[in-house]
Amino acid sequence: MAKKIIKHSWAEPYKIKMVEPIKVTDKPYRQKAAKEAGYNTFLLKSEDVYIDLLTDSGTNAMSDYQWAGLMMGDEAYAGSKNFYHLWDNVKKYYGMPYFVPTHQGRAAEHMISKIMIKPGDFIPGNMYFTTTRVHQELAGGTFVDVIIDEAHDAQSKHPFKGNIDPNKLEALINKVGAKKIPYVCIAGPVNMAGGQPFSMANLKEIATLAKKHGIKLWFDGTRATENAYFIQQKEKGYEKKTVAQILIEICSYFDGMWVSAKKDLLVNIGGFIATRNKRVFDEARNMVVIYEGLHSYGGLAGRDMEAMARGIEEMVKPENISMRVKQVEYCGKELESYGIPLVKPYGGHAIFLDAKLFLPHLKQDLFPAQSLAAEIYEDSGVRGMERGLVSSGRDPKTGENRYPKLELVRLTFPRRVYTQSHIDVMVESIAEVFDKRKKIKGLKMVYEPKYLRFFQARFVKL
Fold it and tell me: Which residues carry out catalysis?
């Protein structure tokens, strides 16, 4: 009798209660749509997209617990009970005593930049993020990348490519002086590096170094639970701690943080500033009234704040965060089985295709990542996005293109939206494009906005 093979499969930890139909199109239709959008996936109509992996920002599926919370929205202009529920959960799960809501993360970035940065300042960080760097530059600061070198190598298997290099940071401090550094900006995981986490050991080392020079740490905690999960899975001494416990420890090293609630908190809109710094809190609470709305709603409806409060409770549940990362891992392994070049290790929120290795015949000036994202959409209706030369933008002083070492296509997984079958369809499409990759000739940019050009730039095929 043959020995029974025991498989250790996994399935999404939820069942489907409601469905949203999606339109299935043919290739001629998609080719026309791509051309009309200037081969920029951000300019496609969502109704023309089959599987939407553009972003996980605000594209999540809320739970029945969150939807029930919407019916309990207190829409008072001041002092909404949902605001206080959200504040309580920020204190409980992030450990920060002070809290200011905003309509989304970039509003929080904007205010922190205006409050903390003076013209001529330098802001070191573990690789740039697009909106963060623009806000820092508009405030008169200069971003300085102090991430470890492995982060710029897509094929490096370093488990914590989001780590800051302490030697790079100390060299900057010695060069410009501590008074010119308002804070060290740490993101986790690092989006532009392929969703790569930092380690707790590195965070402790950087916190000690910064404290020696009287410099504070600020945290982009947009996907902090993913970073906490990677620490749990990869770092010695944390394997028996919960994600919630690790998240609290991470935040304990920071003076404050900004968060786009549209990611970890499993909602469609929202953000916040949280801090232990009373001065920053008072300034932010005053500034939010100018830019967002009263300090007790920050541009959000009461029902949105209730969904955020409940999302915080759900984001640290083991089944939610484990499934999130395992979906990405499954996709990565399937793509690698076809020989498709990816950023390694796999990130927590997305798979990043290495466009330089995928399309080695294209020079970077021909926008290989942008070209690849457009080709994948034309093949199957799967929408990803470029993270390379277009996203990197231009140097504000010289006007010249910045040429990043990484030229990537990001395929981002909205939380609780797609199943394993959707992933299989996406993998097969990318494999099809990979087989025909030598026919891809690249793009020419024909329109470029002043800021964050990747959102609105337009291209033509060569």
Answer: 77, 129-130, 220, 263, 387, 454
